[in-house]
Write a structure and sequence with these properties.
By secondary structure, the chain is mostly helical. It folds into two domains: 86 residues, no CATH class; 88 residues, Helix Hairpins (Orthogonal Bundle), CATH 1.10.287. The chain is 79% helix and 0% strand.
Length: 214
């Protein structure tokens, strides 16, 4: 039981670390004190766990060269390899894809396949969810257009029953009302088509989510 608790605590710390590192700024600037006191293995681990490219080491070299400090390449690479083993877990790949973030192919060969497979599953859900949101927005926009047309029709109906109108004016207003009604029917057809599309998209998203939860 104690071993299980220890394992769970370790996993929680790793997931927390990954969450924090994922939101760190992309800038890798190091000042003089950081260069002089740097634990290059730890820096490498943090970069690997955050999924940063190995090219970030070039930025460290440039920063620390100004202070006559050379990064320890071996320690950095060893730490980064450890960090990548945490970053390249399938669960993290899935979360990365589901959040819509990109993947630059940094995982080593032994971890790449599992990570990329999970990433694509997560990204499929992200794309399906994005499609649902987009269609929702389109339906909302078309409803606003329809409401505007209804209000315009109401104005025209008020004008139609006004006193003192000549027959030609009434004919023109009736024609404008007919045009508005045709536009309304067209928008209503668009809304119906979009709602049908939305139902299919939602069913697809629900299916993906169901299989992902298994």
């Amino acid at each position: 039981m104690a071993m299980t608790d220890t394992t769970n605590t370790h996993h929680l710390r790793i997931f927390t670390l990954l969450a924090v590192l994922a939101w760190l700024p992309g800038c890798a600037t190091l000042n003089k004190e950081e260069c002089q006191l740097a634990d290059w293995r730890l820096i490498g681990y943090q970069d690997g766990a955050a999924g940063k490219s190995a090219t970030v080491l070039n930025e460290y070299r440039e920063d620390c060269a100004e202070h006559a400090v050379v990064p320890d390449l071996d320690r950095y690479q060893a730490g980064r390899a450890e960090g990548l083993r945490e970053y390249c877990k399938p669960d993290n790949g899935y979360r990365l894809g589901e959040s819509g973030r990109g993947y630059s192919g940094i995982c080593p060969a032994g971890l790449e396949e599992g990570f990329r497979t999970a990433y694509h599953k997560g990204r499929e859900i992200y794309l399906a969810r994005s499609a649902v949101k987009k269609t929702h927005a389109m339906i909302h926009q078309r409803h606003q257009v329809l409401q505007g047309l209804k209000e315009d029709k109401g104005v025209k109906l008020s004008e139609l029953i006004a006193d003192g109108l000549q027959s030609e004016q009434r004919v023109l207003i009736l024609y404008e009302i007919t045009e508005l009604e045709q536009e309304m029917h067209s928008v209503e057809d668009e809304i119906a088509a979009l709602e049908h599309k939305l139902a299919n998209q939602q069913a697809h998203l629900d299916s993906l989510a169901h299989h992902a939860a298994r």
